[in-house]
Amino acid sequence: MLAFDFFAATEGGLFDINATLPLMAIQVVALTYILNSLFFKPVGNIVEKREKFVSNNIKDAKNKLSEVEKLEAELLSQLQSARSEAQKIVSEAENESDKLYKEALELANNEANASKEKARLEIENQTSSAREQLFKQVDELSELIVNRLILEK
Amino acid sequence: MFLNSLPTNFAALEVGQHLYWQIGNIRLHGQVFLTSWILLGALLVFISLGTKKMENDPKGLQNLLEFLWDYIRDLARTQIGEKVYRDWMPFIGTLFLFVFVSNWGGALIPWRLIKLPSGELGAPTADINTTIALALLVSLSYFYAGLSNKGWRYFEYYVHPTPIMLPFKILEDFTKPLSLSFRLFGNILADELVVGVLVFLVPLVLPIPVMFLGLFTSAIQALIFATLAAYYIGEAVEEHH
C-alpha cells in the first residue's frame, strides 16, 4: 500500500524530467500574458487612476488651504491697520476736544476777570465820587458851623 | 486485518508515479497538467469575475483583487526598484499566483477522491518539472532584464566589488535556479507526504494541525519564490556606482 519506491519505478520516479518541463514553462509564459491583460493592466489602471485622483485632490486642497491662509493673513493685517487707524482718530479727537475745552475755559476766565475788573473800577469810582461828595458836604457843614459860631459871637 | 479493511485508495501513498500522456515522441506527466488546468481555470474565472465590472469605488471581489495587486506591486517595487518594476510586475505576480494557487489547490482540494489509472492528482508544484520550469524562467528573466537594461555592462556585475568574485557569481547563476526549484519542490512534496503518511496512520484529527501547517508553508513558499525571483531581477538591473 505505502509505495515508497522513490526511484524504483520502472518508469517515472520523483526526478523524472521530460517534456512536461518546457510545456509547463510555455504555459506559465502564456499565463503571464493572460494575467497581464486580464488582471494586472485593468486593475493597475483603475488603482493608479484613483491614486492620481486622490493625490490631485490632496494637492488641490493644500493649494486652497494655503490660499485661505494667505487671505486670512491679509485680512488680519487689514484689520490691524484699521484698528490702529481708528485708535489714531479717537486720540486725535480727544486731543482736539481737550484743546477746545481749554480754549473755552480760558475765554470764560478772561471774560469773568474782565467783568470783575470793570465792576471793581466802577465801585472804586463810585466810592471815590461818594467820598468826594462827602468831603464836600463836610466842608459845607464845617463852614456853616464856623459861620454860625462867628455870627453868634 | 483492520488496516486491510480501510479504503486503500483513500490512504495509499504513491510517490514517483505519473499518469503518462504520450503525444508522438514526447511523454508528459498528465496529472500535473490536469490539476494545473483546473486550478488556473478557477483562478482565471475568479479574476474575470472580479474585473468584470470595475468601479472607481471598489466593491467585493474587486476590493480583494486590488489588495492582491497592491501586494504584488509592493513586492515587486521593494525588490526590483522604482525604475523598472512596472515591466516585471506581471511576471512576478504570475509566479506568485501560480505557485500560491498550485500549492493551496494541492493542499485544499481532496484530489484523492478522483482515481487515475496511474499516479495521483496533487499540487502541480510537487512535480520537479514544474518547479524547474519556473526556476529556469526566472533565470532567463533576470538575464534578459540585466542585458536589456544595461547592455553588455550587465557583466560588470560579475566582477563588481572585485574580480575575485567572478567564479562565485558564475556559480550563483547555477545555484539560483537549483535552489529555487528544489526549495519549492521539496517543501510541497514533503508537505504532501507528511499529510499522506499521517492520514494513513491516524485518519482522524491528528493530521489537521499538520494540514494547517502545510497551508502556511504553501503560502510562505509562494511568497519566497516570488520575492526571490524579484530580488534576482532587481540585482540584475541595479546600477553599481
Compose a concise summary of this entry.
The complex is a heterodimer of chains A (153) and B (241). With 153 residues, chain A is an all-alpha fold.
Largest sheet properties of chain A:
none
Query: Helix coverage percent of residues of chain A?
Result: over 70%
Structural class of chain B: mainly alpha
Q: What's the helix count of chain A?
A: 1
Strands in their spatial order, largest beta sheet of chain B = 2-3
Taking pLDDT < 50 over at least 5 consecutive residues as the criterion, the unreliable ranges of chain B are 1-11
Distance between the termini of chain B: 72 Å
Can you walk me through this structure?
- The complex is a heterodimer of chains A (153) and B (241).
- The model of chain A is unreliable at 1-10 (pLDDT under 50).
- Chain A is mainly alpha-helical.
- Chain A has 1 helix and 1 strand; from the N terminus they run βα.
- Chain B has 241 residues and is mainly alpha-helical.
- In chain B, strand 2 (20-23) and strand 3 (26-29) form a beta hairpin.
- In chain B, helix 4 packs across helix 5 (85-108), helix 4 (61-80) packs across helix 8 and helix 6 (128-150) runs parallel beside helix 8.
- The model of chain B is unreliable at 1-11 (pLDDT under 50).
- Classes of the chains: A mainly alpha (153), B mainly alpha (241).
- At the A-B interface, strand 1 and helix 1 of A face strand 1, strand 3, helix 3, helix 4 and helix 5 of B.
Which helices and strands appear, and what pairs or packs with what?
The complex is a heterodimer of chains A (153) and B (241).
Chain A (H helix, E strand, L loop, with lengths): L1 E2 L16 H133 L1
Chain B lengths: L1 H4 L2 H4 L1 E2 L5 E4 L2 E4 H21 L10 H20 L4 H24 L19 H23 L15 H36 L5 H31 L4
Antiparallel strand pairs in B: 2-3
Helix pairs in contact in B: 3-4, 3-5, 4-5, 4-8, 5-8, 6-7, 6-8, 7-8
